[in-house]
Structure formats: C-alpha cells, structure tokens
Amino acid sequence: MAELHSVGKEPNRKTVDEIIAGLEAMGNYIPPSEATRREYRNVLLEEYKEFVETHDKEKRDATHPSEET
What is the model's pTM? Predict the structure, then answer.
C-alpha cells in the first residue's frame, strides 16, 4: 500500500484491482467467486482509504507540528 500511495494512487477500484493482481502474482489465493472477490475488493478499498488518510495525517502533522507546549 505504501508503494502505491507513494506514486499517487488514489483509493478507488482500479487501485484495488492492482493490489489484488499483485497479491495473486505473489501467490496469494483469492477465490474466483465474483461475490467473494467483490467483498474482498470492498475490504481492501476500505483498508487502503484508511491507510491513505492515516499516512496523509501523519505527513501533515510532521510538516505542521501543533503549537501545544
């Protein structure tokens, strides 16, 4: 996910399909059932969205530390 985010990939279906293709290429089994793949895709999309939000927040916080003492 970090690699995809570092090249500016947005959290969308196309990016998730890239993640799935990469996982399959590495030998991870993803069932061929369309219903299962859809659910897997939705979970990955939510996880990638969360990753992007967290990473962007950490980057903002590092760039603009709070004024608290």
Answer: 0.79
The pLDDT tens digits of the residues spanning 13-58 come to 999 999 999 999 999 999 999 999 999 999 999 999 999 999 988 8
The sign of the dihedral angle between the CA atoms of 44, 50, 54, 60 is positive
- Compute the distance between CA of residue 43 and CA of residue 29 in angstroms, rounded to an integer: 16
DSSP state, 11? S
- Assess if residue 63 is contained within a domain: no
Task: Count Cα neighbours of 51 within 13 Å in the Cβ-side half-sphere.
Answer: 18
Q: Is residue 64 part of a domain?
A: no
68 domain residue, yes or no: no
Q: Please count the other Cβ atoms lying within 10 Å of the Cβ belonging to residue 48.
A: 20
